[in-house]
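## Example pair
The file below holds two records. Each record gives the amino-acid sequence first, followed by its structure token line.
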Amino acid sequence: MRTPGIVIFGLVLSPCGWILDLTSTVAPNWRTLTSLAGQSSDSIINQGIWDICKGFTTTSSMICNQRDTDRLYFNNQIIPIAQGMMVASLVVTLIGLAVVTPGARCWRNRPPRWPLTSFGGVLIFCSGVLTIIPISWYTYVLPTLNTTTTFTNPQNPGITVGYCVVLGYIGGIMEVLAGVVLFVGVCRCCGGKNRGEKPSTSSGPTRTTASTRPPRPMPYPRTSPPSVSSQSASNVSYPRYPTNSLDDDLDFPRAKTKGSVNPSFSGKPYDADL
């Protein structure tokens, strides 16, 4: 049996979302600080949930492991919550994939185990929710997070969203969609089309229509002559010939017995050889 499309869709989206979530969790770029006071104009600070990096916009070099320079930032309430929920999301996604993979049975010609596949879809859905919640919260409090970094213009600080937030949103949405499509297989809808099943044909008698009825064979014309009845055959008269006349017609000089001569034969003796 071919693997249903919803299972393939879920098995493709789940690992992709997990990779994006892993990148969002590890990379130190949840927000970017610019226009720093007392530093060059091209100086930037990238803050994540695990580390802080300093760099310059004119070069690609980054200096990380600057966690001790801004302890106030890591004391914000959202930071430890985001750390725990992002790690929990990664773990739950792996558990969900471990449950879905044997339930899908893509390597066998058998239908999937839908209860097991649906349970794995629920776990993957929960992992996506665990990713979206801290990222949404962090985005909401992004401008008001405490930090020891000072800005050139405190009224208009240079704070922008980092790429980790964007990757986290995309990864969480992909996991949510994967969990939903995997869970849909638990209920059989539309005659099993959501599971990739072929519609079953009715086993009852089928009605024969004019288009499906086989053509009638054409009768062949009779070629045998009509039989003659015994009564009519007895009434048929055949000509009778005398026996002597037949013998005379077939009488040849050599066929005659010794001493007999045919007076009607006027030819020579050697004409009979021809």
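Second record, same layout:
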Amino acid sequence: MTASSNNSSSRRGGSNDDDGSDAPVPSEISAIALTILGTFVAGRCLAVVSRLATVLAAPVAGFYLMTTCPTNESFDAKKELKRVLRGYYKPDTDPSKPKNFLEKAMAKVNATVEAEAAAIAGCNVEIIDLLGLVKIAAINNSVSQTSYFFLGAIHKWRYIMSKNFPGKETKAD
């Protein structure tokens, strides 16, 4: 009878060392609960610190951008247009960027001619001030029907992109 009562007790949920399905000891459960609670508390603390850092860093970054924003007079449209046209802002891996001395000289001559033609034709320069933090300058070149965009921040003007605009067609009556 001891053997059958032993079998019945292990079927009812009693302790069985062979199958490894023992319930965790209460001290293990409390350790797991404390780990989960500690993780939750640490996550909440990190979230609060992150928000606090953002609240403190945003005004400091804004003040830095305001004090280092370049003036409108510091933007030299002809010089920046020449740099773009001769490939100064292109990455070194770009196949259209001049590589040797002759290509660089020809690109410089072409850039000078086109920049002077744009100046004679009256290229339009627009500068937009965004809350005193940064400035965006646009050079609208009527000769090549292209606009060139620059970002002014942290004492420098940086080339962003250029966009071609088709010529305005007039309707004949």
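Notes on the second record: Strands lie at 124-130, 134-141, 146-153, 156-164. Helices lie at 2-11, 26-68, 77-85, 101-121.
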